[in-house]
Design goal:
The relative contact order is 0.26. Strand 1, helix 2 and strand 2 form a beta-alpha-beta unit. The protein is an alpha+beta fold and 112 residues long. It has a single domain, classed as hypothetical protein PF0899 fold (2-Layer Sandwich). Helix 1 crosses helix 2. The chain starts with a helix and ends with a strand.
């Protein structure tokens, strides 16, 4: 379960930026290709933050679908199954343009 180690690292980053202020919400983008189970991530978030300034905070996970761009025809394809081919022409000359994100986009802090 790599979600536990991900939450540990995310928590360290968030607490460093919060500078000892109480964190209420952490907004996170997680790409489809990261193979992260959002419910497990949210569960682990609560475990790793007990006794910290993030305790009781909400992990708001924004799931980012995988998108491919075809080098041959220029089309973009939202990846529905794990076939790395252009949805328009069938070419395998594609590049991933979205879906690999693992990014803290913002944090909300408790007002003093």
């Amino acid at each position: 379960m790599h979600e536990l180690s991900l939450c540990h690292s995310i928590g360290q980053i968030v607490r460093r930026h919060a500078e000892d202020r109480r964190v209420t919400v952490v907004h996170l983008q997680v790409g489809q290709l990261r193979q992260v189970v959002p419910d497990t991530l949210v569960y682990c978030w609560g475990l790793v933050n007990e006794g910290t300034t993030c305790e009781g905070s909400v992990l708001d996970v924004d799931h980012v679908p995988a998108v491919l761009e075809c080098h041959d025809c220029g089309a973009t394809t939202r990846l529905e199954e794990m076939a790395m081919v252009c949805g328009t022409c069938g070419s395998t000359a594609v590049a991933v343009t979205a879906g690999e994100e693992l990014l803290v986009t913002s944090i909300e802090l408790q007002e003093v």
